[in-house]
Design goal:
By secondary structure, this protein is α/β, with parallel strands linked by helices. 41% of the residues lie in helices and 14% in strands.
Length: 446
């Protein structure tokens, strides 16, 4: 069922309107010019943003700035933004965007460069401590115009702040592993062996829950394995290498994982894979940290208290994904300065910890080190360690990626469900990708 709703955050306060609370107190000086402003923000239906919704009333109480949230399922959110960002005056003051939308929005000049806001002493909080933000997340979600066009470098600029960013970790059933004397896999060889051994040890149970649905989901799952196995989509000259030995190995790994899964796993997206693990249908889960809290929710999970966490297994190197969401100010926003204050507050040390305590994904190193958070969510320490290996160049965030990603995902689905030869399929992706890159001008200077 598609989740689509629009809610005024003021309504979340039990019986007292947030506006009356703000009016009854002294608003700090930086917020006074904007008290009474109503910001309209666009968030996805996502565990991190559900957690953020719980703390937004505190922002209004502190600042007098009202916040109205349009919360949409991700694909609906992207469709809405595609329309909104082209208007002369947009309806949104602050938007959330998934990482690969960064290239599209920046290239179309639809996001504000944040430099002038952080340069403004009336707006920029001197205690913000940007150095505490997780480097890989900032580079991945927020920076454009540097190395390769989407990474930091002398020509790079900041267009967004990580908010709901994610990395990949391995969840496993501690009870199943203890029952059979299994060791948590640290390498890809061990991971793939267990993925197909577990169904033999536990008939009816799958080994490793994975995304596999045609399109973006299959591509995402492939990329999860491609990077640690030493592969990539392009080399430094933008020549496709997706079909090299590492690419073939990653595709075979994904096919093996799906083949050793339960019936219907070929159609899994992230939510379906997580739900299958939560219902006890799988012994392992390799995906985003965003799902961790849901596995400990007794209303939806049958594996509460039986989930352990480990780093993304090592291939030729240790590497985990960087992805998820960030927040940015549209170029056509009507309340840009107040929107910056909200962005800054949501990603501050104080709010980052509050949101993390509600089950959200931290954006700061200090949050992962917080004793209170680790006491409530013991897995936080493992997630913090995983960030050492989070690779901001996990996938190419370039304007042509949408077309290439769709083609890659469709081809991988054919490999998984129709037994298309892996080398033949990836050779086709490489050939078509080069044509797309050539048309876009990536070989003009060669």
């Amino acid at each position: 069922m598609t989740l689509t709703f629009k809610t005024c955050v003021a309504a979340l306060a039990a019986s007292v309107s947030l506006g009356s609370i703000a009016a009854a107190q002294d608003v700090p000086a930086p917020y006074q010019p904007y008290a009474g402003t109503t910001l309209v923000v666009n968030f996805p239906a996502h565990p991190h943003y559900n957690a953020a919704m719980k703390v937004l009333p505190e922002f209004t109480e502190q600042t007098g700035i009202e916040v109205e949230v349009d919360q949409l399922q991700y694909l609906k959110m992207r469709e809405r933004q595609t329309l909104e960002l082209t208007k002369d005056e947009g309806d949104y003051d602050l938007i959330s965007y998934v990482v690969f939308s960064k290239a599209d929005y920046v290239y179309a000049d639809q996001l504000e460069n944040l430099a002038r806001y952080f340069m403004n002493p009336k707006l920029a909080d001197p205690n913000y401590d940007a150095a505490d933000l997780i480097d890989g997340y900032v580079q991945n979600i927020g920076v454009a115009g540097g190395q390769k066009g989407y990474l930091p470098g002398p020509t790079g600029s900041l267009y967004g702040i990580p908010f709901g960013s994610e990395t990949s970790v391995l969840g496993y059933r501690t009870d199943i592993f203890e029952k059979h004397g299994l060791e948590v896999p640290e390498t890809y060889d061990a991971l793939l062996e267990l993925a197909c051994q577990i169904p033999e040890l536990e008939p009816g149970m799958g080994g490793l829950a994975s995304r596999a649905a045609s399109g973006h989901q299959a591509s995402h799952a492939f990329l999860l394995h491609l990077n640690p196995l030493g592969g990539g989509i392009f080399d430094d000259a933008w020549e496709p290498i997706v079909n090299n030995e590492a690419g073939v190995e990653a595709a075979n790994a994904l096919k093996s994982i799906v083949d050793c899964g339960i019936e219907g796993s070929q159609t899994f997206g992230p939510s379906e894979a997580a739900a299958a693990f939560a219902q006890g249908d799988y012994a392992m889960f390799l995906d985003s940290i965003a799902f961790a809290a849901t596995f400990e929710d007794e209303t939806n999970s049958q594996v509460v208290g039986n989930v352990g966490w480990a780093l993304h297994p090592e291939g030729v190197k240790r590497a985990s994904q960087t992805g998820g969401f960030g927040i940015a100010i549209p170029k056509n926003a009507q309340n840009k300065e107040a929107a910056f204050l909200l962005m800054q507050w949501l990603t501050s040390k104080e709010a980052d910890l509050m949101i993390a305590m509600e089950g959200g994904n931290p954006s700061r190193f200090s949050t992962y080190e917080n004793a209170e958070l680790n006491a409530k969510y013991p897995y936080a320490a493992t997630f913090g360690e995983a960030l050492q290996y989070a690779d901001p160049d996990w996938r190419p965030i370039i304007p042509t990626w949408g077309k290439i990603n769709a083609d890659l995902g469709t081809t991988l689905s054919q490999i998984i469900t129709e037994d298309l030869d892996v080398q033949e399929g990836l050779d086709g992706v490489a050939e078509r990708s080069r044509a797309i890159m050539d048309e876009a001008g990536y070989y003009t200077w060669n």
